[in-house]
Structure formats: C-alpha cells, structure tokens
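In this section we walk through a basic example: taking a raw amino acid sequence and producing a predicted 3D structure, encoded as discrete structure tokens. The instruction is simple. Fold the sequence below.
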Amino acid sequence: MKEFNVVELLGASIPVIRPKETKLIIVTGAIAVGKTTFARDLLNHLINQGYHVTLRVEVARTLENEFRLYQGDSEKYACFFQYAMIRAYYNEMKEIKKLKNYDYIILDRTYLDTIPFMNVIIPDGDIEVLEMLNDELSKIEFPFDVAKVIYLKPSCDKMLDRYRIRELDERVKDGGVDVGYDDDYLMAIYDQYDLCMDKMYSSYMRVMEMITRENLLIGDCDYDGVQFHFLPIDVDESTLYGTGDYVLRLHGILTNGRRMRIDVCGIKPFFDILIDGVNVDDMLSEIECESHEVIQAKPINLFCGNTKEFVRFYFKNSGIRSKQLRMVKDRYVTYSNDLTFHYRKVLREGKIDVTRWKMVKSSELMYGNNQYRKVLK
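The resulting token sequence is shown next.
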C-alpha cells in the first residue's frame, strides 16, 4: 500500500514541458517517514511521464563503515561521523554536477539534512566542533537549480511504527543483532526537522510542499470572522519553531472536502507523581518544570475507592517532559506517564473531541475551549 499519491501530488505541479536545464527535486524528512519509498515512486512516475530522471542513493548509505563506528560509540565518533557525512556530500555534489543530460535529478536528502542530526548528536557546548562542521557545510552548494523540495512528515506515532517494522527486518538480516535507535533519538530527530526546516531550505520555500498523512499543507488560510465545521482525522504533537512551546496539531477536513490543519496552542504537557510517603520538597527540588499543582484523583490502573493526592508537573514541551519523566520514573510512582502517546491524555484532559464534526470559531481563534494559532488549508 502506497502512503503517498505521487500522481496527485505532481500531476499539476511539474509541467509537461521538459525543462531546458537539469533541475533538482529534493525529498527530505526524518528517519522512517517513507522518504526513500516515496522517492522511488516519484522516479517511476516521472519516467512514465516521459522525463529523463535519475534517483541518487542517499549518501548515508554509502558510509557503512563510518556508520558502524558511530553506532558502536556514538559519543566518541559523533564529530567524526558528521564530518564524514559532510565530506561525502561535498563529493556527491561534484558528481551530480557531471549529470547534465537529465531533466530531473532526485536527491534522497542533501547536505543540509546534516543540520538536524548535528543538533541532536553534537553537544551544545562543543562550540568549536559545531563551528568547524558549519564551516565545512558552507563550502557546499547545489550544482543545479532546485525545482521542488518535498518534506515528508507523517505523525510521530506512524514514524515510530514504521521504524519498528523496518528495524525488525534489519535485525533479521543482521542475524539478530540490535542495531536500532531508541524512541528518544527518533523523536529528537523528528522534532529537529520541524525546528530546522525553514533554516535548511529557506531559499526554496517557494517550491516546498509538506506531505503529512497523504495531505498537502499549502500556505495560510484567512477565515477571520467565519465559523466553519471541521472533522479531525489525525492528531500529532510537536514544538513551535522559535518559541519551543508545545503544540497539538489536528489534521482534518472541512465540509467541502478541503484538507486543513489546526494548531492548538497554550497547552502544557504534564505527568503526575503520587504523594504517598514521598518527601514533596525533595521531589520539587529535582524536577525542572514550568509550574506544578497538587491534584486529587483516583488512580485509573487499579481499583481505589478513595481519591489520592498527586503533584502534577507542567512543562514547556514534550521533549522536556520526556527528559524529566525518565529521570524520576524509577524512583516515584508516576501517572500520565506515556512517553509516546501523551497527546491522547492531552486530548482527554482538554476535552478536545476528535471523533466528530466540530464548529470552529475563527474570529475568536478558539477550538472548543482551547485557543488555536493558525489554520492551514
């Protein structure tokens, strides 16, 4: 089953007239988002349309030995692997420059895609290392004009599910050896792509399309002073670029079938700790949060006739929440502690119904009782 409809996406986007000069099409996205599969489908589609096209192998796949070193000791070889990637991309651009007989050259990631990975695996304190790597990046440029940048971004849950399936296949091939990434790393890369996309491809935003769950998000849509019905189909959570705040993203349709995304802001992700023989002052001193409160509730994972006291900790975004939760989950009894699907708890607590049509008041920027930031058509 194909996740993306290439014909629908590109049927009216790329002209039938063949370009006078070779153009680049960049397919980008985090790990396990369907990027390589989409690039192959795109290649076949363009060939069937009569274009002369080639798809370049992702550069990371050519650095197997360097990658194995990095996997063996990621802290020791982080800088080495990033440098090797950048140098490989430098050489790749030189090779691509020789390919002048194609209409389109499809790139499965580019040298700019080293930025989100660099932000995750290189410590912030290694200023000299970061400056050196960025200096090497500045020496690379695309040999041809970019016709289109396609950013693939399924929901975080779907990305994790895809990776687990892929990891299982790779583990079988490697004789049962675990060579995979943990969820923390995958989600960190996923979030960094959202944060870095404007910086990475700001010069090409006019040709960028973001694909999410078979839907296209194209520009802002002005609905001031209008009420409209909206049916959520999918939900994910992310971090707002520039502020680092938590955002709940609702993807759905209008009554006329038009696809839409609503970003619900002003929500603080949280987890709870049971107050039962616990020194609350010690607990408060070791957890870094934006705010906290004591709540009365009944534990939902066992029968309890009486309410119990919990401390609820609120955080700026899901990344900070996850980090703090991992620090304390083995020493305290925690609730609302899902590291992967916390948005489900956010939906319940915020009484955000995603199972039926909802009247959205654009003039008030409200989705139910929650403020939303913008609407994308």
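Looking at the output, two observations stand out. The CA atoms of residues 59 and 88 lie 7 Å apart. The mean pLDDT is 79. In the next section we compare this with other chains.
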